[in-house]
Structures are given as structure tokens and as C-alpha cells.
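Milestone 3.1: sequence recovery, worked example.
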């Protein structure tokens, strides 16, 4: 009878250990896959991220918003001319050079408006170039090595059935939590790209005000927002790199329960910092 009990105990321990190793391996692999996905997404330009959406946004911007921006520019430059004339002592002192100044500003404004989409894409190209140049230096891997799994298995073999059962339940719960956190990370990273498309679609309107003395704040703030969104990807990459280093420092062989919950803590911290990257980027560039 004792032989049968020992056999069942060993069988149950083997089942629990296999389950724990599988759950923990999937946990770190899922995290590693998500890290790699983030690095790829933030390093992709709007044109390369989704060609269909990019073409749609460009067509909408150039066929619907650009004509409206042309009307806005007409009003802005007309008002600018009126202000230039009135400033010269209510029409008593008029110099011909102010008309040349106005014509030059109008030419610059038309040039900017007609190349709005190229200017916007240039901003993101610069930001993506920075991200690409830094990706090879600051990205890391959170994959579990065979040595780590062997050390964990040796640690689990010394544990009784009760603690193993509790650890298996915790590892299963943690896997579920990581899947939910991965969804949060997905929403943050993909939401940034959708925000870029939305901001790009209305680009001609604020760009039409850049040469106006009274309304140029709208265009300047728009350019700051573009820079903030572009370099938010760089901040996201830094958060991911810090997270990878923290996860790599987890000692799986010492205390498996502590390792699992530490990984969860770091993943929650990653989600929090990713949410903050947008605010930090806007504060750096003074966008609001």
C-alpha cells in the first residue's frame, strides 16, 4: 500500500513539475514575444505600418482637408495684409516693401501647405531613424535559457506535493494575467500609431496658420505634437529595454514563487511606464 502511495505521489509531483515548467516557460516566452513585437512596431514608419490605412489617410487629407486649409490660408493671409497696412499709421504711411514682404510670406505659406504631407512624414522619418539607430543598443531578450529551466526543475524536485500544487495554481493564474497585460501593451503601442494617423489626417489645417503672427501658435503646437508622438516611440523602446534587463535579473532557481510574481510586478510596471511615455514626450516638447 505504501508503494502505491509513493508511486501516486511521484506521479503527481511529476505532473505538477511539468505543468509549472510549461507555464513558466510560456510566461517568459510570451513576454519575450511581446517585447520583440513592441520593438518592431515602434520602429515602423506610418507609411510602412499599414499601406492601406496610410493611403486612405493621405487621400482624405489631400482631397478633403487640404481645400479647407486653402480657404483658411486665404483668410489668414488676407488678414495679415490688412494688419500690415493698418500698422503703418492707419494708411497714412505706406511703404511698398510691406507688399513684397506679404508676397514672400504668402509664397512660403503656399509652399508649406502644398508639401504638408511630406513635411509631416519627414518628422516621423527622423524619429524612426533615431529609433532604428538605438534599437540594436538598448533592446534585450527575456527568453528563458535551458540552464535556468534545469535549475528551476532541480529546485522543484525538492518540494512536496502541497507547495507544488500551490505553485502550479499560481503559475497558471500568472499566465492569465500576462495575457491580459499583453493586451494592454498592444493597445498602447497600436493606439500610438492610430493617433499618428488621426493627427496626420488634419495636418493641412494647423499648417495653414504657421505664417500668421496671431494664429501661428496652432501650427507650432501641432509640430510639437508631431515631434512628441514620433519620439514617444524612442521612450517606449527605453521602457522595454529597462524591462528586459529587470526580467533577466530574476533568479528563477532561488524561489520560483518569488520569480513568478516579480515578473508580474515588472510587467505591470512596464504597462504603467508605457502609459506615461505620451505625457513625458509632450512635456519634453512643450505640446499641449
Amino acid at each position: 500500500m505504501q508503494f502505491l502511495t509513493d508511486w501516486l505521489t511521484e506521479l503527481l509531483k511529476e505532473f505538477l513539475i511539468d505543468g509549472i515548467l510549461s507555464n513558466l516557460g510560456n510566461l517568459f516566452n510570451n513576454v519575450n514575444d511581446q517585447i520583440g513585437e513592441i520593438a518592431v512596431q515602434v520602429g515602423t514608419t506610418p507609411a510602412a505600418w499599414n499601406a492601406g490605412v496610410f493611403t486612405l489617410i493621405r487621400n482624405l487629407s489631400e482631397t478633403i482637408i487640404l481645400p479647407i486649409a486653402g480657404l483658411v490660408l486665404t483668410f489668414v493671409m488676407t488678414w495679415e495684409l490688412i494688419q500690415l497696412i493698418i500698422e503703418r499709421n492707419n494708411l497714412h504711411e505706406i511703404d511698398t516693401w510691406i507688399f513684397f514682404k506679404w508676397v514672400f510670406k504668402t509664397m512660403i505659406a503656399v509652399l508649406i501647405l502644398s508639401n504638408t504631407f511630406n513635411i509631416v512624414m519627414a518628422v516621423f522619418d527622423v524619429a524612426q531613424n533615431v529609433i532604428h539607430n538605438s534599437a540594436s543598443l538598448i533592446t534585450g531578450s527575456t527568453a528563458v535559457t535551458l540552464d535556468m529551466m534545469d535549475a528551476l526543475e532541480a529546485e522543484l524536485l525538492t518540494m512536496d506535493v502541497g507547495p507544488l500544487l500551490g505553485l502550479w495554481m499560481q503559475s497558471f493564474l500568472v499566465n492569465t494575467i500576462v495575457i491580459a497585460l499583453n493586451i494592454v501593451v498592444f493597445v498602447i503601442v497600436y493606439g500610438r500609431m492610430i493617433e499618428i494617423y488621426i493627427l496626420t489626417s488634419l495636418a493641412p489645417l494647423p499648417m495653414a496658420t504657421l505664417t500668421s503672427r496671431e494664429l501661428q501658435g496652432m501650427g507650432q503646437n501641432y509640430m510639437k505634437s508631431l515631434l512628441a508622438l514620433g519620439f514617444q516611440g524612442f521612450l517606449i523602446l527605453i521602457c522595454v529595454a529597462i524591462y528586459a534587463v529587470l526580467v533577466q535579473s530574476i533568479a528563477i532557481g532561488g524561489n520560483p514563487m518569488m520569480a513568478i510574481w516579480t515578473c508580474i510586478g515588472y510587467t505591470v510596471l512596464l504597462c504603467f511606464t508605457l502609459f506615461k511615455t505620451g505625457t513625458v514626450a509632450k512635456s519634453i516638447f512643450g505640446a499641449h
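The chain has one domain: 2-65+116-285. Residues 2-65+116-285 form one domain.
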